[in-house]
Structure formats: structure tokens, C-alpha cells
């Protein structure tokens, strides 16, 4: 996207993953087109607002652009926003992979283009964060990991755009609204210490804990408990790789009662002790400084 400076990039056979940033004018208007499909996840102030529309669509009005959106190849997106300091993670897919996985029609419907402006959900958010982590702290088999995640991201985007959900849920109102999934992501991004509790997330979305857990599983295909465990694991890996915090401090930030309990849980999930993980990540990263995106 114009006006975005690439900070870090990783090239693989199926995609190019970039971390980028910019200081945009206030307000900002952009026109963006690309020969390849691009999935973008924006990191902006809470007060930031952005909206857009695809050129040539029958609807002439602008719609809100979500935190995560996808640009189909060769479609011009006209966007505008409040401007300011912007950071973004972008997955630029190989066009052949896009065609192989999605087999898209020549023309998107207006409704599908509108949904492309906001494909953010818990699954896509978690996958993008995993790519950010891999780009900032490359590990063994990093290209294979990124390629695999890229394929999953395209499938998840297709589900969002084309509503490719299981038939037994197609007419079921008992699934979570996209705004609730965005609220959960924003809430977790703001957590600085402690382990988020299911009751906190349920209260945030206005549901009872039991009903919220049921809706979450029906919507994402994953239990809420498992999702929170994976969220905490990713957060632990970031804290271990990015700084020199002692294990006791990391354990406290993640809501563990002691460093020993944290080490046991981390080893159970990864097969490594926290110390071993930190050592290997720093050895693999070398002395080169990668761009950081928080």
C-alpha cells in the first residue's frame, strides 16, 4: 500500500509477509490496487476510523474497513481514514495459490466485496499474530511454517467472504457476531498482566459464561479454553524472545502463580523449557535486529 514503509519482510514460495509502518496525513485518502491478493492487519489507535469501497461496485457508498481486510487481485480499493501513526502486517499471496485454494469467480458480488473489507475473526487474528512472531523471531523451518499458515489464512478468508460455513450453522442465529470477535481481540491486545477469564470475555460481549463458551465453539470450531491457552502461549513466546525479563516476571504477567508453574505449562505445550526456548530463538535470530510490531 502506498505510504507504508516495509520494516521487515519474509519471502516464501507461496507468499511474502511484511511488517510495515507509516505516519499518514490527517485525514488520509488512498487508492490501492495490486496484482496479487493481499491480507492486511492494521494496528492503529483505538480512535482511528477507516472506511472504503471497491471501484466499480454498484454500491457507491463507503463502508467501514475492519482491522483485518483482504484486497482481491486487480480490484481497486478507495479508502479514507483519520490518519496518524499506522502499523500493519501484510500477507501478499502468490496468485496461483489464491486460485488453487479459492477458485474464485471472475466477479465478486457486492456483498462479497463488502465482507472482504472486514474478514477479522479470532482464527484469522491468531494466524496473523503467529506470522508476526515468525517474521520477528525466525525459528527452525520458518518458511514451511509461514507457507502453511498462508494456506490456512486464505481458507479462513474464503469462509468469511463466501460464507462457507457448515450447513447446519448456515441458518443458525446461535453464532457470534463479527463485532464480538473484534471486541475479544481488542480486549486481549490490551491485557498487560494476568490470564483473561472466560467470564470476563462473556461479560464483555453481554452473555452468560456458559452460553458464551457454546457460541465461541460454534463460531470458531475451537473451545474458548483452548484458545486462551494458545493466546497465553504466544504471549509467553513473545516475552521470552523480545526481552530479558526474568521468568518470575513473565509468569506474573501471564497469570501463573509461580515461575515453576509457568515453566511446567510451557514445557507441556512446546516440549522445551522457557530458558531453552529463549536461547534457541536468540541463536537463530543472530545479531540482526528485526522490525518490531506490537
CATH-defined superfamily of the largest domain: Jelly Rolls
CATH class of the largest domain: Mainly Beta
- Summarize the helix and strand pattern as letters: EEEEEEEEEHHHHHHHHHHHH
Q: How far apart lie the N and C ends?
A: 20 Å
Number of domains: 2
Strand order of the largest sheet: 1-2-9-4-7
Q: Give a count of the beta strands, DSSP E runs of length 2 or more.
A: 9
Low-confidence stretches: 164-172, 287-294
Q: Tally the helices: what do you get?
A: 12
Structure description:
The protein has 294 residues and is of the alpha+beta class. It folds into two domains: 5-164, Jelly Rolls (Sandwich), CATH 2.60.120.10; 174-285, Arc Repressor Mutant, subunit A (Orthogonal Bundle), CATH 1.10.10. Helix content is 47%, strand content 18%. It is built from twelve helices and nine strands. The chain has helices at 95-102, 110-116, 122-136, 142-162, 167-170, 178-190, 198-205, 209-220, 224-242, 247-253, 259-270, 274-285; strands spanning 5-11, 15-24, 28-32, 38-43, 50-54, 63-64, 68-71, 77-81, 84-93. It has a five-stranded antiparallel β-sheet with strand order 1-2-9-4-7. A four-stranded antiparallel β-sheet has the order 3-8-5-6, with no helix packed on it. Strand 5 (50-54) and strand 6 (63-64) form a beta hairpin. Helix 7 packs across helix 8. The longest helix is centred in the middle third of the chain and has 21 residues, at 142-162. The protein is globular and about 60 Å long.
